[in-house]
Design a protein that fits this description.
Elements: H1 4-9, H2 11-23, H3 28-40, H4 49-63, H5 70-77, H6 81-94
Helix pairs in contact: 2-3, 2-4, 3-4, 4-5, 4-6, 5-6
Length: 102
């Protein structure tokens, strides 16, 4: 869980996630899940926030059955595909999900 102040403190990143959701044609549930995942594990350093936001968005799309490629998510969030690839599994596991094994 996260505090309401986390949302306020990370308003810029929530807006970027919402914008990327629109670019990727994800529904409101996927976008809300991405926001929740991001805010539940906001990194301490600003440098890590773009990768965490992108990985959260990718994980949320998987959870909500609206898969998008890692490259598409990375492009929408302005990060490298490697950032998404390295970050999504730990986010899923922290949220209590088992990552797919494909």
């Amino acid at each position: 869980m996260y505090r309401a102040s986390d949302r306020v403190d990370n308003e810029e990143w929530v807006a970027r996630i919402e914008s990327a959701c629109a670019d990727l044609d994800l529904d409101g549930e996927a976008c809300a899940t991405a926001t929740d995942l991001f805010l539940s594990g906001v990194p301490e350093t600003d440098r890590s926030k773009p990768a965490t936001a992108a990985a959260s968005l990718y994980a949320a799309a998987l959870i909500r059955g609206q898969e998008r490629s890692q490259s598409a998510v990375a492009d929408a969030m302005g990060v490298s595909r490697l950032s998404v690839q390295q970050g999504w599994k730990p986010i899923l596991e922290e949220a209590g999900f088992s990552p797919p094994t494909w």
